């Protein structure tokens, strides 16, 4: 092994590929606004992203943010006011905005670090074996990642070998689906009993689901694209080194000097 | 003889090169050129030449998720209910996001990058009797195009 580089572009660990890549700061800020923590997950800051999502679910539930949102979107402002818990709502608001701010700021800095890392051009790892896992940089189809995450959020992350996040997301999707009774409602919808479908739904837990599904689809899609770029870059590094001493000359003899 | 093959970045490409080397083509008779699909873009994020298609998809997801929350919420007082409301709003949102990017791109007269451009060119110098084998290996490992020159 060579000495570790100062600014590596990617590492392989048991948990998958962790990489610097070019971030769109507006998209990162937007996903933080959709679900605090999602912006940090896009920045490959998986642990703090996970902790932020946990605190989002807990504090949102205590403050009744989702119920207040539903009442507000429906124009029932008096009910929105009465359902909110001031004890939790103010702190929720502050941490919500700070999560957006912090992810936006980090994305700007990660872009600079990525720029420096790509100029350093240190060798990118391509395959590592661990006692419990095999992790490698692989090419994948973005559409497959989208389809997996759309059918069951978290499975797109599994497709990208990010299994820790995958099972975390799968677990929470089960929690949302069972507490909101979304699958029962879907069944009633499919057999045409619309009013029954609406009756069984639990609004607080249902309202997490569009954000989580959207975030999971976007994260798996973006990760697939970035892994594909990393694969191409690693292969380019490897081939450039391996065929450096090529003696192929397309014009030889007298033609070469002209 | 000169054999030229164009490939995508893939494991097949490395298989092709390894098999060529094991079939008696010395490494120094191989020239491998990585190709760029666009000029080197400047670093700031706002590069316009980037893949328009994926930018549209990204904006589509962002709008779809935002509208889905609103659609699901308002669905609680609408006759069609929150699930249909959320799904319809998501589809509408994706269309809006994708459409905005598309219209924007047309205004700027940007063209999406053609898909499936070759990314790596492999040039092999070999003796005449080796060339059929070289061609066969390239085709076996999914070369996009292969050419032979009597040079």
Helix proportion of chain B: 40-55%
Note the run of SSEs of chain A as H and E.
EEHHHHHHEEHHHHHHH
Report, as a whole number of angstroms, the end-to-end distance of chain A.
Answer: 44 Å
Can you list the strand order of the major beta sheet of chain A? 1-2
The rough form of chain A would be described as: elongated
By DSSP (H or I, 4+ residues per run), the number of helices of chain B equals 4
Quaternary organisation of the protein chains = heterodimer
Structural class of the helices, strands and pairings of chain B?
alpha+beta
- State the major sheet of chain B: 4 strands, antiparallel
Number of helices of chain A: 13
- Return the CATH class of the largest domain in chain B: Alpha Beta
> Unreliable stretches of chain A, pLDDT < 50, 5 or more residues?
254-258
How far from one another are the termini of chain B?
5 Å
Transmembrane segments (chain A): 165-191, 203-221
Keywords (chain A): Membrane, Transmembrane, Transmembrane helix
Transmembrane segments (chain B): 57-77, 83-103
Keywords (chain B): Membrane, Transmembrane, Transmembrane helix
What's the layout of helices and strands?
The complex is a heterodimer of chains A (258) and B (151).
Chain A: E1 10-13, E2 16-19, H1 25-34, H2 38-42, H3 46-63, H4 65-73, H5 77-83, H6 86-120, E3 127-129, E4 134-136, H7 142-151, H8 155-159, H9 163-180, H10 182-190, H11 194-200, H12 203-206, H13 208-242
Antiparallel strand pairs in A: 1-2, 3-4
Helix pairs in contact in A: 1-6, 3-6, 4-5, 7-13, 9-13, 10-11
Chain B: E1 2-7, H1 11-22, E2 30-34, H2 52-75, H3 81-107, E3 120-125, H4 131-140, E4 145-149
Antiparallel strand pairs in B: 1-3, 1-4, 2-3
Helix pairs in contact in B: 1-4, 2-3
């Amino acid at each position: 092994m060579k000495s570790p580089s100062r600014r590596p572009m990617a590492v392989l660990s048991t948990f998958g590929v962790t990489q610097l890549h070019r971030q769109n700061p507006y998209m990162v800020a937007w996903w933080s606004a959709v679900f605090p923590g999602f912006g940090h997950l896009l920045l490959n800051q998986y642990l703090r992203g996970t902790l932020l999502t946990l605190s989002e679910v807990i504090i949102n539930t205590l403050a009744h943010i989702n119920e207040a949102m539903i009442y507000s979107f429906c124009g029932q402002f008096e009910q929105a006011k009465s359902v909110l818990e001031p004890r939790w709502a103010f702190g929720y608001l502050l941490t919500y905005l700070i999560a957006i701010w912090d992810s936006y700021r980090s994305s700007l800095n990660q872009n600079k670090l990525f720029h420096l890392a790509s100029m350093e051009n240190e060798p990118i790892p391509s395959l590592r074996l661990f006692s419990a896992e095999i992790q490698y940089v692989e090419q994948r189809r973005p559409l497959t990642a989208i389809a997996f995450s759309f059918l069951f959020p978290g499975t797109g992350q599994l497709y990208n070998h990010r299994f820790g996040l995958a099972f975390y997301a799968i677990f929470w999707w089960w929690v949302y689906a069972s507490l909101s009774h979304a699958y029962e409602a879907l069944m009633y919808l499919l057999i045409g009993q619309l009013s029954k479908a609406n009756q069984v739904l639990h609004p607080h837990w249902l309202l997490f689901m569009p954000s989580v599904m959207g975030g999971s689809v976007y994260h798996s899609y973006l990760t697939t694209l970035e892994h594909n770029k990393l694969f191409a870059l690693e292969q380019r590094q490897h081939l450039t080194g391996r065929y450096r001493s090529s003696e192929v000359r397309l014009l030889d003899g007298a033609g070469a000097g002209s | 003889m000169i054999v030229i093959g164009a490939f995508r970045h893939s494991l097949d490409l490395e298989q092709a090169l390894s098999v060529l080397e094991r079939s008696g083509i010395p490494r120094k008779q191989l020239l491998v050129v990585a190709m760029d699909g666009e000029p080197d873009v400047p670093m700031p994020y706002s590069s316009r030449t980037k893949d328009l298609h994926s930018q549209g998809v990204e904006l589509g997801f962002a709008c779809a998720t935002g509208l889905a929350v609103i659609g699901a919420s308002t669905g609680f007082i609408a006759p069609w209910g929150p699930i249909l409301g959320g799904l319809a709003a998501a589809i509408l949102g994706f269309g809006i996001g994708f459409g905005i990017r598309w219209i924007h791109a047309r205004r700027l007269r940007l063209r999406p990058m053609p898909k499936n451009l070759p990314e790596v060119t492999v040039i092999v110098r070999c003796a005449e009797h080796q060339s059929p084998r070289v061609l066969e290996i390239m085709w076996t490992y999914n070369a996009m195009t292969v050419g032979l020159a009597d040079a």
